[in-house]
């Protein structure tokens, strides 16, 4: 096992994400720790609460988390507040589009309703934010785009870059 988190090394961490601002400041939107999930009332049976494992510096997690873990060691905990550009990005008004309701319903094989998730022809996932008889408005921004977020990160293990222990990837953009 390697002691310090550096680019190319594999970090195994528990993290908890909270909203940093607004009326819902402090609300947990993500955690890998079952104890935190239970304590915060966000536990779900259908979800596995397991440590996040990723190769540092390869874009598997949001930029602010990737940067925050660098230099940390196993057992160390750090809390960081991230601006949108280091987290889920700024809101993009161009990512909110109005589409023909009939075409959307035919393509997604569903009746359009507010808060339904839909997939674009390119594979982007968005949710319907408004619908009337003729059109539906779909927001393809990440749900946390434009929000400042806080992450508590606890490093559990660090492995060398040539360690075959990890299959880095997967859970990245959730964090």
How would you describe this structure to a colleague?
This protein is of the alpha+beta class. The chain folds into two domains: 10-89 and 144-170, Chitinase A, domain 3, CATH 3.10.50.40; 93-139, Thrombin, subunit H, CATH 2.40.10. It has helices spanning 34-40, 63-69, 101-108, and strands at residues 10-19, 28-31, 52-55, 77-82, 96-100, 117-119, 125-131, 135-139, 149-159. Strands 1, 2, 3, 4 and 9 form a five-stranded antiparallel beta sheet that branches. A hairpin with an 8-residue loop joins strand 1 (10-19) and strand 2. The longest helix has 8 residues, at 101-108. It is elongated and about 60 Å long. It starts with 9 loop residues before the first strand and ends in a 16-residue tail after the last strand. 23% of the residues are buried. It is found in: Cytoplasm. Its main location: cytoplasm. It catalyses: [protein]-peptidylproline (omega=180) = [protein]-peptidylproline (omega=0). Its EC number is 5.2.1.8.
What's the layout of helices and strands?
Elements: E1 10-19, E2 28-31, H1 34-40, E3 52-55, H2 63-69, E4 77-82, E5 96-100, H3 101-108, E6 117-119, E7 125-131, E8 135-139, E9 149-159
Antiparallel strand pairs: 1-2, 1-3, 1-9, 4-9, 5-8, 6-7, 7-8
Organism: Halobaculum marinum
Subcellular location: Cytoplasm
EC number: 5.2.1.8
């Amino acid at each position: 096992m390697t002691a310090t988190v550096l680019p190319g090394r594999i970090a195994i961490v528990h993290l908890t994400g909270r909203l940093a601002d607004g009326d819902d400041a402090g609300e947990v939107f993500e955690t890998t720790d079952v104890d935190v999930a239970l304590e915060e009332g966000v536990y779900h049976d259908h979800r596995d609460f397991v440590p996040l494992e990723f190769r540092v510096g390869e874009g598997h997690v949001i930029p602010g988390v990737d940067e925050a873990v660098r230099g940390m060691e196993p057992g160390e905990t750090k809390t960081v507040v991230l601006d949108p550009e280091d987290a889920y990005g700024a809101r993009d008004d161009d990512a909110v589009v109005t589409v023909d309701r009939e075409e959307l319903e035919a393509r997604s094989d569903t009746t359009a309703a507010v808060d339904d998730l839909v997939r674009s022809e390119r594979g982007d996932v968005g949710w319907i934010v408004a619908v009337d008889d003729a059109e539906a408005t779909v927001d393809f921004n990440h749900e946390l785009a434009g929000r400042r977020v806080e992450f508590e990160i606890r490093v559990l293990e660090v492995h060398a870059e040539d360690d075959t222990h990890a299959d880095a990837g997967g859970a990245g953009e959730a964090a």
